[in-house]
Amino acid sequence: MSRPPSNYPSRSGTPRLRDVVHEVMKNFRHEKESEAHQIFRQTAGHQPKGILPQTINPDEETVPGIEHPGSTGVIYCSDRAMANGFSYAKSHEWANLGQGAPEVGPIPGAPERPSSIEMPLESLEYAPTTGVKELRDAVANLYNHTYRQGKDSQYTYENVCIVPGGRAGLSRVAAVIGDVYTSYQIPDYTAYDQVLSAFKRLVPVPTALDPKAKYKLDIEQTKRDIHTQGLAVILASNPRNPTGQVIKGKDLKDLVALSRESTTVILDEFYSWYIYPENEQDFGQSVSSAEYVDDVNADSVVIIDGLTKNWRLPGWRICWVIGPKNLITALSQSGSFLDGGANHPMQLAAIPMLHPDHVAKEKLALQKHFKAKRDHVLKRLHDLHLDVDVPPDSTFYIWLNLEKLPPPLNNGLTFFEELLKEQTIVIPGIFFDINPSHRRNLFSSPCHHFVRLSFGPPLEDLDKGLDAMANVLAKAKSGTKKMGHSYRKSLEIHPHDHI
């Protein structure tokens, strides 16, 4: 760390502490020099791994053998927001552009929102760990209708497992995979970090996607990696969280073809409806690897999706895994000890929602509404001189590069902390740097200078958050001395009030 300058005297002739701190922050090179980064590291599970024993606070360690896995980005950011006064009871006072969830209320042209469900007596029993057969049938029929018309090989209920949420689906799949090299990309969905850490038989092999290539996966390089590195599993979100890009057409066909080279392709397709075409006639289309599977029981392609995002029903926790029959049998077994199965009444309530006519209306309304929100947010960011390097053509996320902002606002963790003062939540980019963020200087992360903004919330919440960003930028124009420090660690303690 460079020596603090001496050209900021106080009345007594000694440098003012606030000025010294500010001058140091202008030259941040390492996470130890940044208060925002130290708060992150001091949170259980976020210490560098392989350097020191994983004891968070020896005086508080009362449960032998426990290792903190680290929280996902949304959980960490919610906890930090609560330290700054956020509560779910007062969530209307905040702009939550961090939560990875769509707005759940009525939108123009969409079917009426569900307001009640029936609970027949039999629904009070446990459901099978693979799910209710009628719902599994409905999922299979929807995929055949949407993506597999005219194909000899068709999905049946035996290719579908109902699970209580996307993370449960990922966990069930990870629990039945043996000792293998698993390919994943940076940046990608934050929960992959915990899955690849918790299920230690999955040996993670990262690939850093190039922003200059719009974060496109190089299929030819992946083929070479399969043969030279022995990759047995490829894990990816498509459309991609957080970059908002989508693999489709020939690229998706080639990715699916890798499943015929002794490799399992696991695709998280939760944003498959959030596609934003330029031409009016293209609205209502969606994307799935199911379109390019040759034999549903021979091609080792695993699809995870559900009601959470596309149907805008995150609270229902009804999702599914689609794949070969023998995979579904294994998932039933892993579900019996991992989660016990999905909610029985909600499964029954979901069945009519998967009818193709209902889906067509939902999909069209969703795409038009969310494309309008995307365009609105991109315009406002442009007006703030925060142009997005790679605008999203799918999902409801914007991957915003902060490198051109004045320090210390030019990294995701500090920008996030400053927005908390304005009652706004975003997700720092380092949470999408899967696994390596635990092992190295955070300033070296390719995701360090980014934040993820969600345009999932209603438009008024988006504007509230964008107004907050405008306030932070306006303050920076008159100087950043008050930025980068004095962050609340809890509601009770504000240790830097004296600075």
UniProtKB/TrEMBL annotation:
Residues 94-466 form the Aminotransferase class I/classII large domain. Keywords: Aminotransferase, Pyridoxal phosphate, Transferase. GO terms for molecular function: pyridoxal phosphate binding; transaminase activity. It comes from the Eukaryota. GO terms for biological process: amino acid metabolic process. Its cofactor is pyridoxal 5'-phosphate. Signal peptide: none annotated. Pfam families: Aminotran_1_2 (PF00155). Belongs to the class-I pyridoxal-phosphate-dependent aminotransferase family. This is Aminotransferase. It comes from Coniophora puteana (strain RWD-64-598).
